[in-house]
Amino acid sequence: DLYSDSVLSCHPQQAIELYSDSVSSCHPQQAIELYSDFVLSCHPQQAIELYSDSVLLCHPQQAIELYSDFVLLCHPQQAIELYSDSVLLCHPQQAIELYSDFVLSCHPQQAIELYSDSVLLCHTQQFIELYSDSVLSCHPQQAIELYSDSVSSCHPQQAIELYSDFVLSCHPQQAIELYSDFVLLCHPQQAIELYSDFVLL
Q: Domain of 74?
């Protein structure tokens, strides 16, 4: 309470060193409120190291709101490593909204590895919409391997619409092998319409 107005604004470095051992571990909520305005904006790296052990595990929602504006934009790699264990597993929807603009466009490979286990299984529809613009166009091979097990079997119609423009035209052989077992047997009419332009010719 004494530091919140005067000392923190005048000596942020000393305050960081002073808080890192005692206050952060004992009063994470107060630390979050205290750091949110000044320290985080001036020393994001130190804040990341300070929050990574105690605060993030105890208050993932507050950490998400706190990091979403500054740290994620400046240190996306560190944010990816920091979120990968706790927050993504507990709040996949919030993670999707948080990553959808910056990180996914800059680090699609890391996003693929990060999302492939938890989010894809729980939110296949959101995953399809999220990847349809950036990742699929940049890494069609990885997208094919990623979709072949879960999404194609669960949402064949969405997979057909998603693949019909880019992947099928660029990798018809892979698409044939991918569709030949499930989609063709279940949706022969759609398969006929889809293949009639490119593959048949």
A: 1-84
